[in-house]
Design brief:
about 260 residues; mainly alpha; MetI-like fold; 2 domains; 12 helices
Length: about 260
């Protein structure tokens, strides 16, 4: 009998069920506190809508297709910015990690670019780039670029010099060195940066839509603000949160699959 709790705690299904129940309980508590605050202060819906008001507005936006239309645009922008930002950060990160001279020449400009607020750069992109979809992708890529770049450089520089020397003694090519040694070492740090980048890409897409767009969830928030449709603003915000959580979960699944060899060691 004394071993039963321990055996249950080590059961993956029991642990998964416990996490689901804990998450559902915390969500229920959050909704109760939210509803209690609205009722206690007697807020009108345009100030702070209750969960019921937001749910009713969600159903209306889902029924007329506006939510799906704007959410799909934002999702395309987020994915495009994620691919663009990670691709450029990976290539540049590899070059900077391999060349100290290039690192000294380029790093000050990268840090200076990171110091510029993206909200201040976005209006310039409105002037330079006509297509709002491409413009928003670039804004999303700029937001996530620096954290991913730093993680990639740190991952590549974490390779032990002894292993590099051993690969060179075996006359490994640069490509073999990257595939067999550097990529496995950098992959955990890269995936950690990708988790951060997935959520930052959502923020970047919304910033781009705020500055100059006629579609997307950021545009929907601006529209709802002008109409004092606060429940619709909450719907758009929760949809953005769902997109960020979904992307974070996908990267976590990818991490579990690609790093399965580390758990087996």
């Amino acid at each position: 009998m004394t071993n039963l709790p321990r055996s249950l705690s080590q059961n993956p299904r029991v642990l998964r069920l416990a996490r689901i129940l804990l998450g559902a309980s915390s969500l229920a508590l959050f909704l109760l506190l939210w509803e209690g605050l609205v009722r206690w202060q007697d807020y009108p819906p345009y100030i702070l809508p209750g969960p019921g008001d937001v749910w009713a507005r969600f159903l209306a936006a889902a029924a007329d297709g506006s939510l799906a239309r704007h959410a799909s645009i934002t999702l395309v922008e987020v994915l495009g910015g994620l691919v663009l930002g990670v691709s450029v950060a990976t290539l540049l990160g590899y070059l900077l990690a391999k060349s100290p001279l290039l690192d000294q020449l380029v790093s000050p400009y990268i840090v200076a670019l990171q110091a510029f607020p993206v909200v201040a750069l976005a209006p310039l992109l409105v002037i330079w780039i006509e297509d709002s979809l491409i413009r928003t992708m670039i804004v999303a890529a700029l937001v996530l670029f620096f954290p991913v770049l730093v993680n990639i450089i740190a991952g590549l520089r974490s390779v032990e010099p002894e292993l590099v020397a051993m690969m060179r003694s075996l006359q490994a090519t640069r490509w073999q060195m990257f595939i067999k040694l550097e990529a496995p070492f950098a992959l955990p740090v890269l995936l950690a940066g990708l988790k951060i980048g997935a959520t930052l890409a959502v923020i970047g897409a919304v910033i781009g839509e705020f500055v100059g767009a006629d579609r997307g969830l950021g545009f929907l928030i601006n529209l709802a603000q002008g109409l004092l449709d606060t429940p619709l603003m909450f719907v758009a915000l929760f949809t953005l949160a769902a997109i960020a959580l979904g992307l974070y979960g996908l990267v976590s699944l990818l991490e579990r699959h690609l790093l399965a060899w580390k758990r087996a060691v």
